[in-house]
Design brief:
heterotrimer, A: 228 residues, alpha+beta, Ubiquitin-like (UB roll), five-stranded mixed β-sheet, two-stranded antiparallel sheet, B: 6 strands, elongated
Chain lengths: 228, 189, 617
């Protein structure tokens, strides 16, 4: 039997199923919390840190990721304070400086308010979100790929660098990869790095209602909780 | 209390004499990578992975792929997890190392006393960067983030023997001495 | 050694061992810690034993090889009891004199005595050495008295008496109350109130609970845990047993970093010996309490000092931290309630139980009680492990105990707390060693590492060093730590190479705040501390690097040039031969010259020149 708890998100009292994450609850109720590594049907890592919110308790607020925070009775959450927006902006800026050639990463950056990037661009083809690793391990129980290496040498690789025969080339990893989700066409050309902002039209609409879900293209490509 | 080595008292200056802490690998090059003795009592226990890999590293001086695959099978750990652990922990080397592993401590106290000079010294003398091995297979240069000998820095360990207050000149002499004579008799405690 | 089946057996054994020890008229204590071993103490010990044997003194003189005394730079060290004569810098050649003159005839050998670097005078006994006298060595003073590979030497001093006391008269709630009242806080860096941690774990639902000792001392420059585990492993084990009794755990682990092989060895021997006498295993002292300990080795990862990463490593996985929205006292090792504490924290427990909470709380400040072991290293005269009461001013540690700077330069700063801590300038040296006081100033007590820096240390370079360290050790899972530290390092490297721009300081501060607020674990969260504290107190050095392209301390390679002073050079050619790039030229007995184009500024020539002829511009 499902148990319900009441939580307050951005002032709105909502009834949520006990044991779900704050992120899932927020998305379901139409509050947009930008996220990258979260996939509705996979486990949550808390790796990208984009979904951070303020968890207010006893007068103090603690910053934590909403995907790993499970709802509890009486919880008070704030998703869109000035501090959170600034931190999210900085994280998105780091991501887009690392992998500007992904339209999805670019759109997340615009959604988080990034207008200019203060770091030199690098051309990485992986943001280590772990979606591919988790779908292979949790949905298909194959574990044909995984994270290998530490720190800035971290990458996704096959065991011993060779594709194992139990990888059936199902393509789930490719389907979920933010580097291949392209709401608009064409990769960025070197020297012509600019932010795509495909979601910008929706972002402008969202600026009048901060944090509201605007059914953006990004969410569709990302299988965000409202689109999944 | 561990094995130790007594260096010849005549040929080395006094502050280069030291005591060994760990035993040398028993078989440094083996034709096959049989790890039955290491796996004994640990089969089907995935949580023993790190301990097993440590023993494999101590035995062979690195982690041969065959040994890793056997460990994965016998412990019940997915191969990717073994591969992951091998890359994550600095204790493990995926390539065979040289006969003498020169490990320079890069801790704060040693840094303030100039341990970077020692790395430069090895680079200049042996032409290898940290992680690399000389072409003749004799020396590998490694770095470690603090040996715990901070009051005696800069510190260097070669195959389990500790040296303290090292300078580039002393390190050069030490490497030459090691190349010329090798390590002398090992006494078992 | 017989099994101890009852509490009374412990006291009986202690009295029996005391009586046996009485036959020794003198005791020669030698430090056998890793530091002194590196200085060659084992060959000194062997030489002395040989002479004692030849003189027929080996039955009446006890030779005790102990763990680290904490005075490593003076090693090899020896103390003769009961006269308390202290000798240092020993070589095997001194063995004959030590036995014939000092042991047999009571004659003190002047040249082997310790010279106080501040006064220049010789000091006769250990008790008079200013370095030791200014400390409050509650924990460290036990090391010279104990042979770490002998449980008997621990028991004869009263060891395991606290466990006996707790087992007979104190239910878990009483033990937890005592620890709470003492005010003991985590000594590994977190400073979390130990009593509260134990209480939370005891209250957590479940029958299967664990205790863990975190001996993964990864902070470079800190080695107090090595010293305690190598020198007095039973003290740590006893603390863990009391913790297990209090929280309801039946299994414990000591996770030791593999870079401490002697500590691993001594911990294993201690566990083995404890099992043999029945202090570990089923029905300890014949009671209902059953508990065992396993020793696990770290694989070489600083991040495994973080509690969730350590537990993952114990489970055989990579040491990647996980979010702590639910604490490890509820969901820890194997998802069971786990109490994880640092070596020094566990080491303080037995004396609190024996002497009472108010004894412990009588030292220290309002919120930081007891004593703390600090690793005082760097540019200071007396380097080594220092134990002082909390609330001692930094100035006392650096100048009174440390003896001030070792090379004539002025002390500029002290770096406390390892890579998670910060640098404090001299005008902050009146700050007390207190968790909150140092945190407020932008640093932290941390594990207790204290590196003294002088004018020859570039603070921007120090920030770069710590960032490079943390980048190397980061697990890489979360964006702020993996990418944030990388970008901070990129900016600071630009600054040290002369490519800094003023707006980069603002960016650095903005990025540092993001990394601190949003990282998943404490490694990332505390990573900005070295940067932020050096920006706070040494901003002028950053500005000099950026605006004037100048490194005031003369360290950053891009901004200095090595040259040979023609007044001092005598043409000996040592530098020419030492240079790995062959950048120095000159004929024998003639002034040598460094070619600035080829010179890689490694500094080897300067360290080799015996005439101080190599200068930095």
């Amino acid at each position: 039997m499902q148990q319900f708890v009441t939580v307050t998100i951005d002032g709105a009292h909502v009834r949520a199923v006990k044991g779900t994450s704050v992120l899932d609850v927020a998305i379901e109720f139409g509050i947009c919390i930008p996220h990258l590594c979260h996939v509705p049907y996979l486990s949550d890592l808390g790796a990208c840190r984009l979904c951070i919110v303020e968890h207010v308790r006893e007068g103090r607020s603690k910053i934590t990721t909403s995907c790993t925070l499970l709802v509890q009775e009486g919880m008070v959450i704030r998703t869109n304070t000035e501090k959170i927006r600034k931190l999210r902006h900085n994280i998105a800026e780091l991501l887009v400086a690392q992998a500007p050639n992904s339209r999805a990463i670019q759109d997340i950056a615009v959604l988080c308010g990034v207008k200019e990037v203060r770091y030199p661009f690098r051309n990485s083809d992986c943001v280590l979100c772990g979606r591919c690793v988790r779908v292979c391990a949790e949905l298909w129980k194959a574990k044909a790929i995984g994270f290998v290496g530490r720190g800035k040498d971290r990458r996704v690789d096959f065991p011993f660098g060779v594709r194992p025969d139990f990888c059936k080339q199902c393509g789930s990893c490719v389907m979920l990869c933010p580097m291949t989700i392209t709401p608009c066409e064409g990769p960025m050309k070197p020297g012509e790095e600019y932010l795509c902002g495909k979601c910008e039209s929706q972002v402008l609409a969202a600026q009048t209602m901060p944090g509201a879900c605007v059914w953006c293209e990004l969410g569709k490509g990302f299988q965000c909780g409202r689109h999944a | 209390m561990g094995n130790y080595v007594l260096f010849s008292q005549l040929s080395l200056p006094s502050n280069l004499r030291a005591v060994k802490q760990e035993s040398l690998p028993e078989e440094s090059i083996m034709p096959d990578f049989n790890i039955d003795s290491i796996l004994e009592g640990r089969r089907s226990q995935p949580h023993q992975l790190i301990e097993v890999l440590q023993d494999v590293q101590n035995t062979f001086g690195y982690l041969p792929q065959e040994a890793m695959e056997t460990a994965a099978r016998e412990l019940g750990v997915p191969p990717i997890e073994v591969y992951r652990a091998a890359h994550f922990y600095k204790a493990f080397s995926l390539k065979p190392q040289g006969k003498y592993v020169v490990t320079v401590c890069m801790g704060t106290a040693c840094h303030v006393r100039g341990c970077d000079l020692l790395v430069d010294q090895v680079l200049g003398e042996l032409n290898i960067k940290p992680g690399e091995t000389t072409e003749d297979g004799l020396f590998t240069l490694d770095r470690v983030n603090c040996l715990g000998c901070c009051a005696l820095g800069p510190a260097v360990v070669i195959n389990g023997t500790y040296y303290h207050h090292m300078t580039p000149g002393k390190l050069r002499s030490l490497i030459e001495f090691t190349r010329r004579t090798g390590e002398e008799k090992i006494a078992h405690a | 050694m017989p099994r101890l089946n009852h509490i009374n057996d412990l006291e009986d054994l202690r009295m029996q061992l005391s009586a046996e020890h009485a036959r020794f008229t003198k005791t020669l204590t030698f430090c056998g810690g890793t530091g002194c071993r590196a200085s060659g103490s084992i060959s000194v010990i062997d030489a002395v034993k040989e002479v004692l044997g030849r003189q027929g003194l080996d039955e009446s003189v006890l030779v005790r090889v102990t763990g680290c005394h904490g005075f490593c730079e003076q090693g090899p060290i020896m103390v003769l009891e009961p006269d308390n004569i202290f000798y240092c810098h020993l070589t095997p050649d001194d063995a004959h004199d030590i036995v014939i003159k000092t042991v047999s005839n009571g004659e003190v050998i002047e040249r082997l005595l310790y010279t106080d670097p501040v006064s220049g005078k010789k000091v006769g006994t250990e008790a008079e050495i200013p370095f030791y006298r200014a400390q409050d060595r509650q924990l460290l003073s036990q090391n010279p008295l104990i042979d770490p590979c002998s449980i008997e030497s621990y028991i004869v001093l009263g060891g395991y008496g606290s466990l006996a006391k707790a087992l007979t008269g104190m239910p878990p709630a009483a033990i937890i109350e005592e620890i709470k009242a003492s005010g003991l806080r985590g000594r590994g860096g977190g400073g979390f109130p130990t009593g509260r941690k134990w209480a939370d774990c005891w209250a957590a639902p479940g029958d299967e609970k664990y205790v863990i000792c975190n001996a993964d001392e990864g902070d470079p420059g800190a080695y107090m845990d090595r010293c305690l585990l190598e020198g007095n492993p039973h003290l740590v084990l006893e603390g863990m047993m009391i913790g297990a009794l209090a929280t309801g755990a039946r299994q414990g682990y000591v996770y030791v970093r593999k870079e401490y092989p002697l500590a691993v060895e001594h911990a294993r021997v201690a566990v083995q010996q404890a099992r043999e006498v029945g202090l570990l295993g089923e029905h300890i002292f014949g009671s209902k309490f059953s508990f065992d300990i396993e020793i696990a080795r770290g694989g070489g990862a600083f991040v495994c000092g973080e509690s969730t990463a350590l537990m993952a490593s114990l489970e055989g996985k990579v040491g990647e931290p996980r979010p702590k929205d639910v604490h490890t006292v509820v969901d820890g090792l194997w998802h069971k309630p786990t109490t994880l504490n640092n070596v020094e924290t566990w080491a303080n427990v037995p004396s609190i139980i024996m002497n009472g909470a108010s004894w412990f709380a009588s030292k220290g400040t309002k919120n930081s009680k007891g004593t703390k072991i600090l690793a005082l290293t760097g540019r200071v005269r007396n380097t080594g492990l220092v134990e002082v009461a909390m609330g001692t001013p930094l100035r006392t540690v650096v100048f009174d105990i440390g003896g001030g700077a070792d090379n004539g330069n002025a002390v500029k700063a002290v770096q406390t707390g390892g890579p998670s801590g910060g640098c404090l300038p001299v005008d902050k040296f009146d700050l007390l060693i207190d968790f909150e006081a140092l945190a407020e100033a932008g640093s932290m007590v941390g594990s207790g590492g204290m590196v003294v820096m002088d004018e020859g240390t570039c603070m921007v370079d120090v920030a770069k060093y710590f960032l490079a360290f943390l980048q190397d050790e980061s697990c890489g899972k979360c964006v702020p730590c993996r990418l944030g530290i990388d970008r901070m390092l990129e900016i600071i490297t630009d600054i040290t190479e002369g490519n800094g721009r003023p707006e980069q300081i603002t960016l650095l501060e903005d990025l540092a705040e993001t990394v601190r607020e949003t990282s998943l674990c404490a490694l990332g969260k505390s990573a900005p501390n070295p940067v932020l504290s050096t920006l706070r107190y040494f901003r002028d050095e950053y500005e000099a690097h950026i605006n004037q392209k100048r490194c005031p301390a003369g360290v950053c390679k891009a901004m200095i040039e090595y040259a040979i002073d023609p007044e001092k050079c005598n043409g000996c050619g040592v530098c020419r031969r030492a240079c790995p790039r062959e950048a120095i030229s000159g004929n024998k007995k003639q002034v040598h010259v460094i070619d600035p184009e080829t010179c890689s500024k490694c500094g080897i020539c300067q360290s080799e020149c015996k005439f101080d002829a190599v200068v930095i511009n």
